[in-house]
Amino acid sequence: MTARNISRFWEWGRKIICVGRNYADHAKELKNAIPTEPVLFLKPPSAYVREGSPILVPLYTSNLHHEVELGVVIGKGGTAIPQSNAMEHVAGYALCLDMTARDIQDECKSKGLPWTLAKAFNTSCPVSEFIPRERIPDPGNVKLWLRVNDQLRQSGCTSQMIFSIPYLISYISDFITLEEGDLILTGTPKGVSAVQEHDELQAGIEDVVTMSFRVDRQD
Ligand SMILES: O=C([O-])CC(=O)C(=O)O
Ligand SMILES: [Mg+2]
Predict the structure, then answer these.
(1) 164-213 pLDDT, tens digit each
(2) In sequence order, what DSSP letters do the residues of 70-131 get, joined into one string?
(3) I need a surface site. Which of 19, 96, 114, 128 has the fewest CB within 10 A?
(4) Ligand 2: centre distance to CA 17 (Å)
(5) Whole-prediction pTM value?
């Protein structure tokens, strides 16, 4: 029997926990209040898409947005993890996109309904290759960027996060047990905008990784 390899965590079928409004500049651009506690939502493992496969625009949206985010891959599970030990639970990182049907999210927000169809559809979580934690010694200070058809749309630094990675791991694990292979999306900086069929998205963590995805309409 071969041991499972964390570097293909997206094949493990574990959960994807997303943090929203973790950058003040992004909360402001969508006219949301700055949160006093992390805003959490989930994506299913079927949301994963890897380079080489397209991001598919759901048929029900006419305003699909990109959100570039640092993803944290859990290496050691736990419940009620103290902040002081939190980084021992991290196996590594991945650059992620939190693809969002903004029109559907707006409708859900105004009706007080959950964001599931806005956030959790197939291909709503493009991910880069796995980045072992040694390659990002200070995850609280890395630059993220995203370009659409070679135009810079998002550029931010994880130092702008409202809630730090150790805080998020500790907070989430108080309510949702973290398991090896889980992924935490840590929120997006400002600059989110719409993408169309045939667009090319390129994103990167400065000096660490780049990835590219094409946008296609669903048949
Ligand atoms: O949809 C939103 O604005 C919330 C979110 O995911 C983020 O801030 O990254
Ligand atoms: Mg997001």
Answers:
(1) 999 999 999 999 999 999 999 999 999 999 999 999 999 999 999 999 99
(2) EEEEESS-BSS--GGGGGGGEEEEEEEE--EEHHHHHHHHHHT---HHHH-STT-EEE---E
(3) 114
(4) 10
(5) 0.97
